[in-house]
Amino acid sequence: MSNILELNQINKTYGNKKALSNITLDIAPGRIVGLLGSNGSGKSTLMKLVAGLLHPSSGTIQVTGKPVGLETKALVSFMPDRPLTEKWMRVRDAIAYYRDFYVDFDEEKAREMLDFMNLVESDRVRHLSKGMNERLQLTLALSRKARLYLLDEPIGGVDPVARGKILDAIVKFYDEDSSLIISTHLVNDIERIFDEVVFIREGELVMREEVETLRLKYGKSVDEMFKEVYAE
Ligand SMILES: Nc1ncnc2c1ncn2[C@@H]1O[C@H](COP(=O)(O)OP(=O)(O)OP(=O)(O)O)[C@@H](O)[C@H]1O
Questions:
Q1: pLDDT at residue number 1
Q2: Cα separation, 49 vs 56, whole angstroms
Q3: What DSSP letter does each residue of 81-133 carry, written as one string?
Q4: What proportions of the chain, in percent to the nearest 5, are helix, strand and coil?
Q5: Where does this protein have coiled-coil stretches (predicted)?
């Protein structure tokens, strides 16, 4: 089957600031990919480009062989690092909002996920803790029937128990015909779910490897390799 995502020589600058340099990358279907890098390395920029929210300064991006645009936006579900829900909403309003906005939203799956996440439909979004809010955002993003899910820091700033629950939900609810890219710098907690990892540093792709290969070839965990690549 052809690739879900292909980036070809992508550059992105903000004014004078170079955020991404010459990124070439492809991702096959059914993969969970860790997009790893320290703060400011360009992870969010890369996700926004793939989601079609930003345009590259040069280079091409294709999702299932189609250039990024209206058609690919329907194939990509993006969970940004800041919540998309409004403070006035209850959990059920957030679900209704997504259902109305996205034709591919699977309400039954959303309810099953809410249950798994211990979220209550009558809860007010503004009263949710950070961890519960991340669970809600993840429920919304994964309940779309997309081909590519982009999760920007889904476990940022939540405690280890909440992290575990969020990771379990990702593994349980993700559809194996799709691919998932998860950005994080909290590598230790999350590496168990990755098939492969992509390391970016100061906008450059410095390593891309199967997790299994890291273990077999280098005898290292992703976390050990991360610390080596990003040593200051
Ligand atoms: N709108 C913008 N205008 C100018 N510079 C920006 C803008 N957005 C990002 N940058 C810069 O581009 C670089 C990459 O930022 P980006 O947010 O993609 O990194 P990141 O890896 O997601 O970081 P973090 O882990 O801290 O979220 C940083 O140096 C950042 O300051």
A1: 58
A2: 7
A3: SS--S-TT-BHHHHHHHHHHH-TTB-HHHHHHHHHHTT--TTSBGGGS-HHHH
A4: 40, 30, 35
A5: none
Q: What is the pTM of this model?
A: 0.94
Residue 4 main-chain phi, psi, to 5 deg:
-75, -40
Distance (angstroms) between ligand 1 centre and the Cα of 41 equals 7
Tracing tokens 């997790």 back to the chain, one arrives at 211
Q: Tens of pLDDT along 179-209?
A: 999 998 888 878 889 999 999 999 999 999 9
Ligand 1, residue 48: give the atom nearest the CA.
Answer: 18
For ligand 1, atom 30, name the residue with the nearest CA.
40
Task: Indicate the SS3 state at residue 177.
Answer: coil
Distance CA(95)–CA(101), nearest Å, equals 10
Banded pLDDT at 231 (limits 50, 70, 90): confident
Dihedral pair phi/psi, residue 126, rounded to 5°: -70, -15
pLDDT above 80 for 232: no
Give the residue whose CA is nearest to atom 1 of ligand 1: 14
- 30: tokens are 């059914």
Confidence band, pLDDT 50/70/90 cuts, at residue 223 = confident
Residues 45-98 have pLDDT tens digits of 999 999 999 999 999 999 999 999 989 999 999 998 777 788 889 999 999 999
Handedness of CA 38, 39, 41, 42 (dihedral sign): positive
Cβ(184) – ligand 1 distance below 6 Å? no
